[in-house]
C-alpha cells in the first residue's frame, strides 16, 4: 500500500515527519533518505501492532486528502510503499470466474501500475479498500 508521508526539516538540520493516515505514526532521520527509510519501518511496525491487536490495516489516502491539514504545511510530501499483504494471513489459491475483457483491462492496469505487483495484489488491495469502508 502506498502511504503518503509528510516530512519537514528541523531546526537542527535533521528531518522528521508523520503519516497522516496512520494515527500516531512518527519517524525521523539524519538525512532525507534515512527519514524515508525510517518512515517505511515505522509504518510497518505500526501496521503489525495494529493487526496483532485485532485492528484493521489503515487505509492510505492521497496527498490531496491532507493538503488542507494545518499540520501539513511548509514541508515535503513523499510516498512510502509498504507490503501489507503479509498481515492478511496465509495466501490461499482460489479459482474465480471473471469476464475476459475485464480481466484483460485489469492486467493492463496492473502492468501500468506496478505498485500492485500482480493481478492478485490488485484485487486484494481493492478488497481491502472496500472492506475498510464497513
From TrEMBL:
SUPFAM superfamilies: TTHA1013/TTHA0281-like. Residues 3-127 form the HicB-like antitoxin of toxin-antitoxin system domain. CDD domains: RHH_NikR_HicB-like. InterPro entries: Arc_rbn_hlx_hlx, HicB-like, TA_system_antitoxin, TTHA1013/TTHA0281-like. GO terms for molecular function: sequence-specific DNA binding. GO terms for biological process: regulation of DNA-templated transcription. Pfam families: HicB_lk_antitox (PF15919). PANTHER family: ANTITOXIN HICB, UPF0150 PROTEIN SSL0259. This is Predicted nuclease of the RNAse H fold, HicB family. The lineage of its organism: Bacteria, Pseudomonadati, Pseudomonadota, Gammaproteobacteria, Enterobacterales.
